[in-house]
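Inputs:
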Amino acid sequence: MSGPAFVAHRDDALRSREAVAPDGEAALAARAQGGDVAAFEALYQRSGGRIFALCLRMCGDRDQATELAHDAFVRAWERLSQYRGESAFGTWMHRLAVNLVLERLRGDRRREARVTVARNDDHHHLMENAADPAASDILDRVDLERAIAALPTNARMVFVMHDVEGFRHDEIAAHMQLAPGTVRAHLHRARQLLMRMLQR
Amino acid sequence: MTPHLDWDVLNDLADGRLEGEAGVAALAHAQDCAECRRTFAAVRDLRAQAAALPEAVDPPPELWTAIVATIEPEAARSRRQVKQSAASRWFAQPWRLAAAAALLVAASSGLTVLVMQRATDGATSPVANSAPLSTGAAPITLPVAWQAAERGYLESVAELAAMLDDQRAVLSPATIASVERSLGIVDDAIAEARAALLTDPANAALADLLASNYRQKVELLRRASQLDPRS
């Protein structure tokens, strides 16, 4: 479910995204709309990391995130004719990916698996560099990413959409087809669980 | 001392969702009460950390490979449609039309003359058996999007060239020489456009030009393969 208001509010969100297409993006999009895979690859190079990050945090599983990102870009390819260039391609793509991820994950209350986002070798590498002042920040981020991945599905999705992606309560409620009070409860529970996991 | 703020109130406060007197009172308590102040700071810190997470995470390298494997068949269909409309646009531009006409006239005039001659004088000529006609196939190093399109052209060119080679035994040396000269002109044009596109893969005009040159070659081969054996 998505509403027109979503677009306008999204640009004002905590992590506002570029609303204007960067130089050359319109030409790339036009070529991609004409079936030019190389142009679409260039667009993918610009937005793939952001879309993958969204998928990864929302589902908490690397393999599933890869599948979701794949499906999001395939859907984008199929719907390129609907992209009018009124916003940056990345903004349009992000919106499409959010909708797809929520479609797939909505109602998935049975998922209890606890997975980690960062691989063990990533964490080991970071530990080795802990003497670096920047490394402690990185360790905090890795811990937070892992903790987010370990949250229950709905709590994780609400937390990611609100605190990471910057959506408002009402937007999340509309997209997840939940009551605003339920969104609030998921968010507060997610934070409580995260603080426990991070021992704060 | 008022009771501690409950968890929901602290979160709402951190999210800026408490307005009016309730917000002012909660904030005042959070500032005065050490325990609530600590919890409030922890919630705000968590929010800040979440907002500061990297916006992008490198996707696995195989992701794009999987995407392109899925969309490529659809892309090929789209490209065919675009080429048809691009061809219309291309020929709608007078300067391009003039250039194309000049090239096509130069390349095909020999064939036209031969066809017309054959129709009027019914002359026969000795048969020659020279080397096979070049297909003009160059190494495929173009962008992915163009590689499939070029393969399509090259397949058509190869089929028609094979038909023309079958004709070779019954065509005159003059006819074969004329055909090869014509094909040489188009091959040069293809090579030029192709080289230009390799250096500027994003240039849609060059892509159109290369596609147009390939189409001209296919048309020339088609016409040559239909020449009367006595030419």
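Residues 1-18, 109-131 of chain A have pLDDT under 50 and may be disordered. Flag for discussion at group meeting.
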